[in-house]
Design a protein that fits this description.
The protein has 269 residues and is an alpha+beta fold. Helices cover 31% and strands 26% of the residues. The protein is built from 7 helices and 12 strands. The strands form 4 sheets. A 4-stranded mixed beta sheet has the order 1-10-11-7, with helices on one face. The protein has a 4-stranded mixed beta sheet with strand order 5-6-2-12, with helices on one face.
Length: 269
């Protein structure tokens, strides 16, 4: 089931109680948080503020993008990531450090003698997103619904057979949307397991209505351990979250627009 998210949504989740106090986490093994940030909500004066939340290395990387839109969405994604970490876990945004795993996935260096926190970011044209939880694998993917994609050809080359049929059978007006529902589910999953596109996308398949996964090799993974959610953060975007959780019915996910006022205040602290 998709959830349409409004820019005015406040919600009753744990994040509505304010940022972490004294470093006490507002998330735990049964709670995940996700923010999404549309670039159209960011004013001209906000960009230097958001950029100040990035490390020198991140700012240098942002300057290497050829297109301005790519530079800005990179800044938005990484500022949101550091902001969400500080919001939920306490501490200064520039204190968070990352390592790079075997397949290139950034991993948060968690505080010593504490639990392991897992974070993942995604961005597309005009939208950034970040997701955070404790201990469990987590992945997030966002896609712009107005992109140009040869959906049927890509599905035929990369998807599992049931998914290919769904894309091929979709009407012309629904084909891209159908394709991207599968694509974001697959991207969120492979990002969560840390393999990226080194993981063959036809080795697993989704039921996009039930948001359930199945595996060609039944011992490869356990479908019962995976929780997926689709969101519509705006009319032009699709966002999908994947969380590996052994008791997923007890999982609480708080998803909302990134609070720009909080990010502005964080930069001044």
């Amino acid at each position: 089931m998709e959830k349409t998210l409004s820019g005015n949504e406040i919600g009753d989740g744990f994040l509505s109680h304010g940022p972490a106090v004294g470093g006490k986490a507002l998330i735990d093994r049964d709670r995940a948080a996700a923010w999404w940030l549309p670039l159209e909500t960011i004013g001209e004066a906000d960009w230097p503020i958001l950029s100040s939340l990035l490390t020198d290395a991140e700012r240098e990387r942002s300057e290497r993008f050829h297109f301005e839109r790519d530079r800005l969405v990179y800044i938005a994604a990484h500022a949101s990531c550091r902001g969400l970490l500080s919001y939920c876990l306490g501490g200064a945004p520039l204190d968070w450090r990352f390592t790079v795993e075997e397949h290139g996935k950034p991993e948060l260096v968690s505080p010593e003698a504490g639990p392991r926190f897992r974070v993942n970011i995604s961005h597309t044209r005009g939208l950034a997103a970040v997701a955070l939880t404790q201990e469990h694998d987590i992945g997030v993917d966002v896609e712009w619904l107005e992109r140009t994609v040869e959906a049927e050809k890509l599905a035929e080359r990369m998807f599992a057979e049931p998914e290919r049929r769904k894309v091929a059978e979709a009407s012309e007006g629904e084909r891209l949307d159908t394709f991207l529902k599968f694509w974001t589910l697959k991207e969120a999953y492979v990002k969560a397991i840390g393999k990226g596109l080194s993981q063959p996308l036809d080795a697993f398949a989704f039921d996009p209505d039930a948001l359930e996964i199945s595996f060609r090799d039944q011992v490869a993974d356990d479908p019962a351990n995976w929780h997926f959610e689709h969101y519509r953060p705006g009319p032009k975007y699709l966002m999908t979250l994947a969380v590996r959780h052994p008791a997923k019915r007890g999982l609480v996910v708080d998803t909302r627009p990134a609070p720009l006022d909080y990010l502005r205040d964080l930069a001044k602290a």
